[in-house]
Amino acid sequence: MEPPSSQRVRTACGVLAGMLILLAFLTIDPAAPGMTAAQVATPATGSGFVGSWRVTPTIGGEAAVALTSFSADGLILTSNRPVQPATPGLPAGTLVQSLGQGSWQATGERTADITFVILQSDLTGIFLGTRTILGSLELEPSGDAWTGTFEVTIADPSGTVVYETTGAVHAIRIAVEPPRAGTPAPATPLAFRDAVEIIGAATIVQRG
């Protein structure tokens, strides 16, 4: 029969081993090999801006419409009306604008700054300069909208500033919506012979 003292030592060793295992589990390095990205990932600051948005910029009481997308790696793309009245200071009555391209950077959990540039030309394709927008945005708690203010600087091809103004902006997230009509049935492939007959019939009708 085992002496009582030996039983007490064995019990104490067992308890100590259990505590060490528990401590190791609680202090495991989250970045240790074998951990998946989903287990260690945490939301990035400002990541709520990532996605596409229906944007309403307002300058001097006049509202416009635009589409803007934020990528997770800091890129911003925006499209406004491609053809619109010229800005004061430019020698054209009508402007043709390119897609706006630039960068965005989080400044807080729900705030960000943006900068993007748009190329401008007249209707004949002559380059008239650039439109640069600087803005500060704040994401609403719902994550489905944001508001902000912005500055616009118009420069001619030499880089000389010809016009500056400011405005406010509001945006609503473009969310995924399922097709309202359901999934359409797959189209039936048109046989080559049928296609030839249809084209031939159309040709006869045109000649008639």
List the keywords.
208 residues; alpha+beta; Lipocalin; 2 domains; eight-stranded antiparallel β-barrel; 21% helix; 40% strand; disordered C terminus
Mean pLDDT: 78
The portion of residues assigned to helices is 10-25%
CATH architecture of the largest domain: Beta Barrel
Strand content: 35-45%
Tally of domains? 2
Envelope shape:
globular
The CATH C-level name of the largest domain is: Mainly Beta
Q: In angstroms, what is the radius of gyration? A: 31 Å
Poorly predicted spans: 8-13, 15-43, 202-208
Based on secondary structure, the structural category is alpha+beta
Number of extended strands: 11
Here the CATH topology of the largest domain equals Lipocalin
Characterization of this structure:
The chain is 21% helix and 40% strand. The protein is built from three helices and eleven strands; from the N terminus they run H-H-E-E-E-E-E-E-E-E-E-E-E-H. It has two domains: 4-40; 47-173, Lipocalin. A hairpin with a 5-residue loop joins strand 8 and strand 9. Strands 1-3-4-7-8-9-10-11 form an eight-stranded antiparallel beta barrel. It has 208 residues and is of the alpha+beta class. The protein has helices spanning 4-26, 37-40, 192-207; strands at 51-59, 62-63, 66-70, 75-79, 83-85, 94-97, 100-106, 111-121, 127-139, 145-155, 161-173. The model is unreliable at 8-13, 15-43 and 202-208 (pLDDT under 50).
Quick overview:
The chain has 208 residues and is an alpha+beta fold.
List the SSEs and their pairings:
Elements: H1 4-26, H2 37-40, E1 51-59, E2 62-63, E3 66-70, E4 75-79, E5 83-85, E6 94-97, E7 100-106, E8 111-121, E9 127-139, E10 145-155, E11 161-173, H3 192-207
Antiparallel strand pairs: 1-2, 1-3, 1-11, 3-4, 4-7, 5-6, 6-8, 7-8, 8-9, 9-10, 10-11
